[in-house]
Each structure stands twice: as C-alpha cells, then as structure tokens.
Design brief:
The complex is a heterodimer of chains A (about 300) and B (about 280). Chain A is mostly helical and about 300 residues long. Chain A has helices spanning about 10-25, 25-45, 65-70, 75-105, 110-125, 125-135, 145-150, 165-190, 195-205, 210-235, 240-245, 255-265, 270-300, and strands at about 50, 60. Chain A has one domain (about 65-300): MetI-like fold, CATH 1.10.3720.10. Chain A has a two-stranded antiparallel sheet. Chain A is globular. Chain B has helices spanning about 10-35, 40-45, 60-65, 70-100, 105-115, 120-130, 140-160, 165-175, 180-185, 190-210, 210-215, 225-230, 240-260, 260-275. The chains are: A mainly alpha (about 300), B mainly alpha (about 280).
C-alpha cells in the first residue's frame, strides 16, 4: 500500500479517502472469504462426492447418495434429537436460574462488585480444564458428589458413566457454566428499574410475585431474548465439555450432532459423507438463528 | 444510596446465607481443583475427603517437568497473543467502516461467522492445511483462532465507534489528515476501553479453544487444553496431575477476568445492544 507514503501523499489521500468505504474492511473480507466462504463452498461440493480417506478409493461424484444415506442413518437422526434435547433443557434451566439469581442480587449491598466478578468465572474458565474437575467430583466411587449423596442416604447414580444419566449430567454442567451469563446480562438490564417504581408498586399493595411478573419481567424481556438467542446458538454447537468428558458415550448416549460430525470426520475420515452432515448442521443452526432473530425483532418492536 | 428496603420474608441473615450458598455452588469446582492439586494421589481418592492436610507441590513439578506444560503454556500464549493482535489488525478497520459507512452486508457476513458451527469449517481447513503442509504450525492455529476473534472484535467495536461523534472525524480531516490518519491518530486513541474489551475476549476465546487445536495442533504447537485432554488418555488417571494442570490453565484466565471485570461485562452486553 504505497498510497499512504508521504511522497504520494496528495494522490494517496484522495485514493484512500475515496475508497475508504471498502479499503478499510478489505483485509477482514479477504480473511473471511478464504477462511469461511471458500470452505463452505468446498464442503457443499464435497457433500456430492464419495470420498473416504480411510478406504483410499479415489473420490467419485455421487450426486445425492450422501443425502439419501442421511435419512436412514439412525445415529445421525438420534444425534439431532439429543442436540435439541440438550439445547432446550439447558437454556430453559439457565434462563430460570439466571433470572432468579439476578432478581435476588438486584439490591445494593457491600461486595456486590466482587460477587459479579466471581460470577464471571464459570463462563471464562477453560471448559476442558473445568471438565476434568467435574469428572473427579462426579466420579461414581471416589467423587465428592456421590459421597455427599451417600451421607444423606440418596441413591448414587453413575453420572457421566451411566447412559441414562450422562446427558442430564452434561446439561447440569452447562447450567453451571452459563446461568451466570444470564444473571449478569439481566443485572445490567435491571439497572434501568428504579427503586421508586418498585416502592410505588409495594405501596399499591403488589406482592413481590406480582411485581416480578408485571414490572420486572416485561422490562427484562429484550435483554433475556438476546441472552436466549446467544445461548441457543452456542448450545446447539457445544463440543468441548461433551467431547472431553464422555466423547459421546457411554455407547452413543451423549452423541450430539456436533460430536457425531466430529467422529465421522476424524475417527472414520468419511469426508464425503460428513460434508453432507455439515450442510444439514449448518442449515439447522442458521435456520434457528434467523428464526430467533425474527422473534427478537418482534419483541423489541 | 437510595437502598431499597424490602419487606419480603428474607431477612439480612437469610440474604447472606443464600448468597453464600449460591457462591459456594458456582465456586465449588475451582475450590475443589485447587484443593486436590495440593494432595497426593491417595489423599484425593480417600473418603471422607480431608480439608486439613499437609499440601504437596509434587503434582505441579510433575506437570511441568514430565509433561512439558511449560512448552504448552508458551504455545497457548503465543497463539493467543498472535490471534488477538492480527484479529485487531483486521477487525478494527472493518468495524470502523461498518460504523461509518453503513456496510450492512459486511456486518451480516461477520454475524454469520459468529453463528456458524466451527466444525463445518474445521474439516475443509484440515484438508486445506494438510495440502499446504501447514498442520501443526502457529500460522494455522492463529488463522483458525482468528475466525472466532475477528467477529467478536468487530461486534464489540461497532457500537463503540458509532458512539464517537462524526464531528471528530471531520475536525481531523479539516486539519489535513487522511481517513487513515484520522482513524489512527484521532479515533483509535480514544477507543481504549473498547479495544481492551475486544482484546481480552479474543485472547480468552483463543486460550480456551479446544476443537480447532485438537485437530490442527500436534507436537510443535500443542496448546494447554489439548495437553490436559491428552492427559486422561493414560490407563491410570493421575488426578493430582490433572488438577494441577487445570489450575495452570484456568488461573491466568481467572485472574484476567477478575482484574478486567467491568470490561468483560461490557463485552457480554455489547452483542446485546446491537444486532
């Protein structure tokens, strides 16, 4: 970019100024094209080919064979069901707990800043590292959780190691990690709620429960809608904790679509078939994101 | 302070009791991680768990001496700093252009990068980098981590640049500055808080990244999350070492998060304000 050099300054100024509109974002656009758009087109192309690195056979054009196979792939279909189960359950519980804690903390008390800083930690800490601690805490025989349950005399499940419990356990871990985000966003939204309003409501004889449903919640709705949108997008794609703790097991009990895709790609190296899964995965995430954005627009309007 | 006197059933003591209970739940994994990293393997699996014992640092020396965590720490740091720096280099001018010239289409493209499942890019990247002999290089890891960082940086910076009055740009241009000079010498110097927020988040995302690194990194560039994951593939799980490694990985992030709390909360809500 010699145009910015002092010698060409007059001419250069004109050029950069006239074209700043697209010159400034150009590097980012080139980057996004090379790293995102090109790979997506390449994946779309691959999804119409038979290509497996493990078989060593040459790549062949097979039209819609991969997509036809998807419809009969039970592992694929069940992984979609698990993905939605995980997302809906985790985000619903996070929304309830996160909002409840925010309403609870929405008063002035000493040390509020420290509490808010501490609430940041679950979502900032490296998920894979925290996953290791969960594995120790939820260890069926030597873990603290089952030890505490045994003291109270409750049954002690196998948690991540037991097919029936593994996915609910992962939902629990996600709730721990992300409820605080809802809390912090809601707290920021609640700063607009003046104490006068609440006092006036109390004077008028409103119960705290009525105040919450009639005043607090409507005020928080735009904030919570965004929080849910962000959470759903991320929960659909969640990988780290699941892969690090169960790897999709026991059996396929925790195999969400993201985990199944990963296994097809990097355990079986079925690059042709996995590309058709990716196209579907991408379409689902994009479709839901757009749907939620539209709903969000309605809420804010 | 016009503190609100609540007439709910919760008294002062009740409030603090509930607060401590909530904190205990959200902090328990961190306390457990730290506590067990200082125990011997036998103490860790002994029930009931002891809270009073003679701490040992042998887990930490094991992690650094036998498991080469020092090397992985450097890798994570280099990739985190590199992807944040280059992410800013691309993201800041792009965000400025979107804020000033209403580049709506570009904003949509960048939003798409935020929504896209990482794995749908990881497979083509893997093929691409293998063909170019770039797997297991810093370049490949920095480029891939940037795809998470750049959208975030742009997203944080757009509302920030929009809040800067246009008169400031115009004043700079009247003084004979080009658009680039105005951006570098007028706009960026007053954008400190936004840039700090964007950098912290981009760095932490890179530091925590697992999926891209586990596929693209090998011996030369293995990052901390991949290293701790490889740790459990041994037949006998070394819980002490695992907990020490977990402390080494999470401690820097937790310190950054606590020190820069207000910036991070701003970053979390930045995506919420505009969309």
């Amino acid at each position: 970019m010699g145009a910015g050099h002092p010698r060409n300054r007059l001419r250069g100024m004109g050029f950069v100024d006239r074209h700043a509109k697209w010159l400034f974002p150009l590097p980012a656009m080139v980057f996004i094209f090379v790293m995102m758009i090109f790979p997506l087109i390449y994946t779309l192309y691959n999804s119409f080919t038979g290509w497996s690195l493990s078989s060593g056979a040459p790549r062949t054009w097979n039209h819609f064979a991969n997509y036809a196979r998807l419809v009969h792939d039970d592992r694929f279909l069940l992984s979609i069901v698990r993905m939605f189960y995980f997302t809906v359950a985790a985000v619903a519980v996070e929304l309830i707990i996160g909002t409840a804690v925010a309403v609870f903390l929405n008063r002035s008390f000493r040390g509020k800043n420290i509490i808010q800083a501490l609430l940041l930690l679950p979502m900032m800490a490296t998920p894979v590292a925290v996953a290791m601690v969960w594995m120790l805490m939820f260890e069926p025989t030597a873990g603290i959780v089952n030890y505490l349950l045994s003291i109270v005399g409750l049954p002690q499940p196998g948690w991540l190691g037991e097919a029936r419990w593994a996915l609910p356990t992962l939902i629990l871990l996600d709730v721990w990690e992300w409820s605080p985000m809802i809390t912090l966003m809601a707290l920021a939204g609640l700063t607009n709620l003046s104490s006068e309003t609440l006092e006036a409501a109390a004077v008028d004889g409103a119960t705290p429960w009525q105040t919450f449903w009639r005043i607090t919640l409507p005020l928080l709705r735009p904030t919570l809608t965004v929080a849910v949108l962000l959470r759903v997008i991320d929960a659909l794609k969640w990988f780290d904790t699941i892969y690090a703790t169960t790897g999709g097991g026991p059996g396929y009990a925790t195999e969400t679509l993201n985990i199944y895709t990963y296994q097809q790609a990097f355990s079986y190296f079925n690059f042709g078939y996995v590309s058709s899964i990716l196209v579907v995965f991408f379409a689902i995430v994009l479709g839901i994101s757009l749907l939620l954005s539209v709903i969000r627009g309605r809420v804010e309007a | 302070m016009a503190s609100l006197k609540r007439r709910s059933g919760l008294g002062r003591v009740g409030f603090w009791a509930l607060l401590i209970f909530i904190l205990l739940i959200f902090m328990s994994p961190f306390l457990w991680m730290l506590l067990n990293s200082l125990k011997t393997p036998i103490q860790i699996i002994t029930l009931p768990p002891s809270f009073w014992f003679k701490p040992t640092l042998s887990n930490y020396s094991n992690v650094f001496e036998q498991q080469e965590f020092g090397k992985f720490f450097i890798n994570s740091l280099a990739i985190g700093v590199g992807s944040t720096f280059f992410g800013l280099l691309l993201g800041l001018p792009a965000a400025y252009a979107i804020a000033r010239y209403n580049q709506g289409r570009l904003a949509t493209l960048i939003l798409l990068a935020r929504m896209i499942p990482g794995i749908s890019l990881l497979i083509p990247w893997f093929i691409m980098f293998r063909a170019l002999h770039l797997t297991d290089t810093y370049l490949a890891l920095i480029l891939t981590h940037m795809l998470v960082g750049v959208p975030f940086i742009v997203w944080v910076m757009i509302p920030f640049f929009e809040a800067i009055p246009k008169e400031l740009d115009e004043a700079g241009r009247v003084d004979g500055g080009s658009t680039l000079q105005v951006f570098l010498h007028v706009i960026l110097p007053i954008s400190g808080p936004g840039i700090v927020t964007a950098s912290i988040m981009a760095f932490i995302y890179s530091w925590n990244n697992f999926m891209f690194s586990v596929v693209l990194a090998a011996n030369n560039t293995k990052t901390l999350p991949v290293a701790i994951y490889n740790f459990i593939s041994y037949a006998q799980i070394d819980w002490g070492g695992l907990m020490a490694a977990a402390v080494v990985i999470t401690l820097p992030v937790l310190i950054i998060a606590i020190l820069t709390q207000r910036f991070i909360v701003a970053g979390l809500t930045a995506g919420a304000v505009k969309g």
